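Chapter summary example: a protein plus fe (ii) ion.
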Amino acid sequence: MAAAEERDAAAASSLAEFHASRAGVRGLVESGATAVPPLFLPPGCGRERSTPPTPPRATAFAIPTVDLSLPRSATVPLVRAAATSCGFFHVTSHGVPRGTVASAVAAVRAFHEQPAASRSPCYSLAPVGGVAYSTIPIQQPPPQDGSSSDHRAATAASPLLPWRDSLVVRFGPGPEAPDLGRLPASCRDALPEYQRSLTVFGKEMAGLLSEALGGGGVGAERLEREMQVEGWLMACHYYPPCPEPERVVGSLEHTDPSLFTVLAQDAVGGLQVRREEEEGGGGGGEWVDVAPVAGALVVNVGDVLKMVSNEEYKSVEHRVVIKSSQDARVSIAVFFNPAKRDASDLFGPLPELLTAERPARFRRFSVPEFMRSRRESGHGKSSIDSFRIAAD
Ligand SMILES: O=C(O)CCC(=O)C(=O)O
Ligand SMILES: [Fe+2]
């Protein structure tokens, strides 16, 4: 066997061994690991190099805040300014009771911190009964030089794991509730309650994002009508403390495929967004921390809304770094996606946004087509390039 093939085979077998433990990254920490196994080291950041990557520059930048206790005449322009500039904002006075958020975050922590024997029956890379607990391998971006014709095969040959375990719960579609029977009692109560509360908040957010589009030309129900916005997919992340935090990634840089995402995070921190300097962004902007704000939820625009808004709104790259060798971090992301998912349900820039000066920048697409493109081209911002209409 050639050396490269041997390395790939060894990596594939350590990945299989890791999944077979069914205990996640937390299992490694519990077993007393003092060094990070190679599976978690991004190429160029430790596998071949002994020096750690340069940490991001500390920047005094805070994402905007939208206070929903203000009158609508004030919140709509605030949402517009935030979604068109940095694509990420904090929302306060959002109507989701503090206790509901705190109970959900505590329940997620409780799930991940129960003994391995209790959480391992849920370990699965594919959702069973709407529930999956696993360390989801990172799909790495394809090489820039186009040398790999089969990106997925290349990714499978050099697996990379995030320093994160996730409990993913799908609450819909359909009347059937997810099977939460194997989760601790705190999760069975707190997660559905949080999801119900977020559904109400998500509708309000969809209305605001809709009304803030096109400088007043699009009605508050427009997105809801077009896309039947739903918030059924909940990713409950747990980032264990890491003995070598600077060598791992909690989440590789990516954009969200959603219309928009709502994130609750505890006080540990680690989420970073890439600031884009100019329209279109060169991908070279600096990384800045989204410091946790007590009581606030984070909202970010996803790729689908970026395209539907004809790029008025920004879907910004973000990532998670591990800050601590002591504290585990918990976050809960709820993805608000279009409910219409058939190949015949086409979405594209809303016609009322299009003018001679600003013609459609994206062609129409269906959700399955969009998800396929994302699988093929990685989770970075280039995944929507295949829908872009070239400017003359
Ligand atoms: O944990 C976080 O702060 C971010 C999670 C995230 O970006 C995602 O689930 O898409
Ligand atoms: Fe994300």
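Key point: The pocket of fe (ii) ion (ligand 2) is lined by residues 254, 256, 318 (CB under 6 Å).
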